[in-house]
Amino acid sequence: MRRRIRLPAALLCAVAALAAVTGCDGGVNGSPGASGLRDPYFPKLGNGGYDVGHYDLDLSYDPDSRRLSGTAEITATARQDLSAFNLDLKGLTVDKVTVDGAEAAASRAGYELTVRPHDELPKGRTFHATVRYDGEPLTITDADGSQEGWLRTADGALGLGEPTGSMAWFPGNHHPSDKATYDIRVTVPSGVQAVSNGELKRRQPSSDGRHTAYEWRVRQPMASYLATVAIGRYTTRSYTTPSGLPVRVAVDRTVHDADRVLDRIPDVMAWETKTFGPYPFDSTGAVVERPGDVSYALETQNRPVFPGAPDLSTLVHELAHQWYGDSVTPESWRDMWLNEGFATYAEWLWAEDHGGDSAQRTFDKLAKRPASDAVWSFPPAEPPNAAHISDAPVYERGAMVLHQVRRTIGDAKFFALLRSWPADHEYGNADTADFTAYVEKRNPGKGEALAGVWESWLYGNGKPDPAS
Ligand code: TRP
Ligand code: ZN
Fold first, then answer.
1. Ligand 1 within 6 A of 375 CB?
2. Whose CA is nearest to atom 12 of ligand 1?
């Protein structure tokens, strides 16, 4: 799902027909969609030629055999006359692929699954591709050593996808620029539960009582790296905040110290809504796994995942991502600082508003670090390679960029910006140039000072002059 507006193909074809131009006759001139979207860090991630609008995932998982079997039905729209298109899928066995009900030829190379539909797809056509697959899903180790994809946990499994792991558990257009809505149905042996994004629509035991299907629905667009399924034995709690927002938390049954901080979710949501603007989704919550099951927190949509009980600051961070990252999503993996800079700055602001250090003091402490410190090792807008997209410059120095923007435009303009940036890009994507242009446009007269901030803090190598 893309938010950018395009002329409907039918209209283009009508215009072409008037001009006696051919090529709108059902796609006889179709060509294969690109096998990657040329992301600066992961060039083969995602695919060209179509936009996904909706994923309907029907998954079954058995923790004992570790087998996942699934059917993914992908509703997508062709953006060109398509003779073939790719999906990203790593590992697993593909059993059958259909397009609009007709069996389609499928071939695999690396993580590219190439689908050649029986009939070509004309530009503008919305089509349904189904992929039936199964196998033991892979755990992916990233360039920075962290693990994602499908993680086996002490009592089940956890599907995570930043930046590339979702392809280990469902086929799709796995690039943050193609967001879609989701239905995620997970069938598990009764006795374990399945938690996912969005809202739980139904929980249905099989007639023999041996399995239970959990049906989750994500009604707002979601980037595939924010999809999750958590399978295991959880203590779950569902309740509503005073403002009426549904909260659903699932805590691994062996973790006993999480309630105290999770009880703060309504407070954090209230403060973040006041500070960042209306919450963009239909529900919130958290999934807490055992610390040994996963080594980091992740801002999975609606329901961030934590390795054990989070501290309050981490809770603030992951919930802030729901605005910055989940609702307004980076256009490419180069724009990560827009996620992490904002989420880190949210931690600074929370402290500032709750009796801790002011953001200025947090900034000053960082600014005192020597030139050799890791925080200055590269400019936030330009990580050197994929191994560094979650390093300190993306987080702390990204937050420092925002603090310098605040000092340049003043508190009133800055706090308005915190709200309008996610509101104006709600459910969409944005890159660094979109952000700098947006700030400049709303602050005429500050152009020169802002240019200095971008030059030294956002794009500059080495430690910036703290006065710049
Ligand atoms: N986005 C996570 C956070 O800040 C951290 C993280 C987990 C991450 N996996 C990643 C960042 C992969 C970049 C790439 O809460
Ligand atoms: Zn983060």
1. no
2. 162
Residue 218: phi and psi, rounded to 5, are -110, 105
CA-nearest residue, atom 11 of ligand 1: 390
- What is the distance in A from the centroid of ligand 2 to the CA of 195? 21
Query: Which residue, among 381, 430, 382, has the nearest Cα to 401 in the 3D structure?
Result: 381
Pocket test for ligand 1, best of 298, 305, 314, 385 (most atoms within 8 A of CB): 298
pTM: 0.94
Look at residue 4 in the predicted model and tell me its pLDDT.
41
User: Which ranges of the chain have pLDDT less than 70?
Assistant: 1-28
CA distance 29 to 214: 43
Q: Where are the beta strands (DSSP E) in 290-424?
A: 305-307, 329-330
CATH architecture group of domain 31-229: Sandwich (2.60)
- For residue 286, how far is its CA from the centre of ligand 2 (angstroms)? 15
Indicate the pairing of strand 234-240 with strand 246-252.
Answer: antiparallel
Q: Does the CB atom of residue 396 touch ligand 1 within 6 A? A: no
- What local confidence, expressed as pLDDT, does residue 1 receive? 65
Other Cβ atoms closer than 10 A to 366? 19
Please name which ligand lies nearest the alpha carbon of 306. 1
Residue ranges per domain, the chain?
31-229, 233-317, 329-458
Interatomic CA distance for residues 148 and 294, integer angstroms: 9
pLDDT at 419: 98
Annotation: CATH topology of 233-317:
Zincin-like (3.30.2010)
Closest CA to ligand 1's atom 8: 390
- Is domain 329-458 given the CATH code 1.10.390.10 in the classification? yes
Query: For residues 232 and 158, what is the distance between their CA atoms, to the nearest angstrom?
Result: 9
Kindly give, in sequence order, each residue whose CB lies less than 8 Å from that of residue 360, ignoring residues fewer than 6 positions away: 403
CA–CA distance from 232 to each of 84, 319, 445, 468 (Å)? 38, 23, 55, 50
**Distance separating alpha carbons of residues 228 and 231, to the nearest angstrom:** 10
Q: Beta 112-116 vs 105-109: how paired, if at all?
A: antiparallel
The whole-number pLDDT of residue 353 equals: 98
Which residue blocks in 237-378 are alpha helix, DSSP H?
Answer: 259-262, 265-276, 312-320, 336-353, 359-367
**Among all ligands shown, which has an atom nearest to the Cα of 146?**
1
Cβ(434)–Cβ(331) below 8 Å: yes
pLDDT single digits (tens) 15-51: 444 433 344 444 468 999 999 999 999 999 999 999 9
- Reduced to 3 states, what is the DSSP secondary structure of residue 305? strand
